[in-house]
Specification:
Layout (H helix, E strand, L loop, with lengths): L2 E6 L2 H11 L3 E6 L2 E6 L2 E7 L20 E6 L2 H11 L7 E2 L5 E6 L5 E6 L3
Parallel strand pairs: 1-4, 5-8
Antiparallel strand pairs: 2-3, 3-4, 6-7, 7-8
């Protein structure tokens, strides 16, 4: 299993995106942290201001630069419709040359996601 922790400007804003738009479920929390789950995928949201000043990620940087996070879902078309209805930074649904259908979305902090159907 892979778990990803994202350092975000505002945990509540990010939580709203991941829970209300992408469909993640909160499975743990404290004042500056939320643990989320969608199927077998695990995601944590951590307030970036909690990092120690000497932490490598506490330095100025463009979050998500050079990384595409891929999430496989059962109903990519249904999720795309939901995301498109309430989020501006989303691409069209597209059948890729490798045979899967997906779309791309950028979260409130600039993390870049490819949401794709599960390979059968």
């Amino acid at each position: 299993m892979l778990r990803v922790e994202l350092f975000v400007n505002d945990v509540e804003v990010s939580l709203s995106f991941y829970r209300d738009i992408l469909g993640f479920e909160v499975v743990g929390e404290n004042a500056t942290y939320r643990a989320l789950r969608l199927g077998n995928s695990r995601l944590a949201l951590q307030d970036i201001r909690t990092l120690e000043p000497d932490h490598p990620l506490a330095q100025p940087w463009k979050r998500g630069l050079g990384v595409e996070i891929v999430l496989e879902v059962e109903e990519v078309t249904t999720l795309h419709q939901r995301v498109q209805a309430c989020w501006a930074q989303v691409t069209s649904l597209k059948q890729q040359v490798w045979g899967l259908t997906d779309f791309r979305v950028t979260d409130p902090d600039g993390y870049y996601w490819r949401i794709t159907e599960k390979r059968s």
